[in-house]
Amino acid sequence: MRALAAATCGGMLLVLVMGAAVTNTGSAEGCGRSWPLCNGQFVPEFTVATAIEYSHRAVTGVESVLVLALAGAMVWFWREDREALLLAALMVLTLFLQAGLGAGAVLWPQSAVMLATHFGVSLIAFASTFLSAVLVWERSGPHPTPSPRGRGSPFSAAPRGRGSPFRNIALFTTAYVLGVVYLGAYVRHADVSLGCLDWPLCNGQVIPPLDAATGIVFAHRVAALGAVILLGVLAYQARQMDVASSVATCAAVLGILQALSGALIVWTRLGLLSTLLHAGLMGLLFAALTLVLREALRSVQPAEVRLPSGVFERPGVA
User: Fold this and answer.
1) So which residues are the catalytic ones?
2) pTM of the model
């Protein structure tokens, strides 16, 4: 079970990076307007673009089998665990959604908005497989962690209380980072990545003219700076609350590395290795961030209530 979960998680990260390779090598039409076949053939003639696109499809096909197997196993073994059921459903849903968006991008010309959505869905698919692997690791082995019940369960209606501020910060940071990712994917698919030809300045200016490509790229840079700051605040709050502090610190470090990999893309003028590094780091960052969010939701404690006698107690505590 653990081996299946690890393989599924690693496979989804590979699919994410290979999708970035397809985009950044201009191989999106390596199989023409043909899907699921490639140029109308099961085994197409070899070209570099065809090999890149077809290998991405092949890996996605294998990953689809792994996802369905893992989801089925999770439902079978933990059918009464709401978290396991939700993650299994999310894995399968995002798998088919990203496959559908990928097929649509091949069969019909797509706007940069839809192509950016495809990357965003792929990121959520990877995060869901990562959290599923974490759950499998917790529930299996010689000393399994029991399924959370009632108070502290991330999928129960826990009252707002002591853990709520940290939970809200985690929720906002996760949503904000996903928005930054979407904007970055839009920048790439709109082919305006070099709207700013230097870094950290933009065309030699602190604040460049905010028009056309330059304005879009500069907006992404400002949003990315905001993400790095938010990740730092989240790491600090996690340490103060003693909730997933090491994972939150890892997410903050990955946020800095992600920003530097963005600079590397500019310095190398869209070098392939730098763009693949950027996509891979983004996947790892988002996975770490969703794990922090999961632990933040678990950390919510019920608020104090006043008893008729005027004594303060917490529900369930004698």
Assistant:
1) 53
2) 0.83
